[in-house]
Amino acid sequence: MTAALVLYRASGTPVSTPFHPGALGASDPFAAVREIAWQGVGGMSAGRLRVEGSLDIARFPHQETLVVVQGELRIEAEGAAPLVIKPDNGVVIATGAALRITATQPTLAMFCAADCPHPVQPGVFPLVAEANFKPSANSLPKEILLGEVPTCRSDNVIDESSIGCKIGTWDSTPYHRIVRAHPVNEFMHILDGGVRFAEPDGSVVSVERGDAVFVPLGAAIGWESSARVAKYYVVQTVAAEGGK
User: Which SUPFAM superfamilies does the UniProt record give (predicted)?
Assistant: First the structure.
């Protein structure tokens, strides 16, 4: 298995990452339409959903980030204005949310989900590219860089400390980094620019605007970008030994 698992390519090129049908527990509302590419200890998973029609969900069973790449989702949650999620937009659904999800046309969404029994931030939260960026708290150490130190910004929509998970939008000036063990589980949907992920065997996985990728904790991988990169991210710092 490669270190960078490409989940979707906006160009329409088929991905080599294997997916398998599966449910995230007995009460998974997407059990019939979920295709899983990665699961690891700690309850995190990533893959894709093919949705059409309506689902009424009395209590969402886990935390899930959805990024629409084709079609459209309408999210109606109790106590909130409806959200319409179009391609390159996303939503975070917290454990316990009561909502209706409607797709009036065949819709493809990438997902990253995690067990979160007691969310600090209950509700439903949109992800948007035009985020309220602030300087990132964690700067890249100089010893891993092969060039200038980049300027990185982020906007955490979710900071779920109970499971070591942060979700939001990030951007950075270009930079080049050595191959090293990835310090987190990370889902990324590229909003702008492109990234070349170097792997230990010398191969390179390239992703561009509109693509989605997952990098497991501990995967040996490098980073090289030549222009601004922006992305939605889900990161999990809780140890997640192994994966499949």
Answer: RmlC-like cupins
* pLDDT at 137 (0 to 100): 74
Nearest-CA neighbor of 234 among 127, 108, 80, 86?
Answer: 127
Is residue 227 classed exposed, middle or buried when 0-12, 13-18 and 19+ CB atoms within 10 A define those classes? exposed
For residue 64, give both structure tokens: 């899930």
pLDDT digits (tens, 9 = 90+) for 15-24: 999 999 999 9
Count of residues in the chain: 244
β-strand partners of 53: 103
Spell out the residues 6+ positions from residue 113 whose beta carbon is closer than 8 angstroms to its own: 24, 43, 44, 45, 46, 62, 63, 64, 65
pTM > 0.70: yes or no: yes
Give me the domains of the chain, ranges plus CATH numbers. 16-127 (2.60.120.10), 134-236 (2.60.120.10)
The C-alpha atoms of residue 215 and residue 114 are separated, in whole angstroms, by 15
| Cβ pair 83, 74 in contact under 8 A | yes
CA distances from 77 to 116, 222, 237 (A): 19, 40, 29
In Å, how far are 15, 46, 162 from 240, measured between CA atoms?
25, 14, 15
Residue 9 in contact with residue 194, Cβ under 8 Å?
Answer: no
Helices H, strands E: what count in the chain?
A: 0, 20
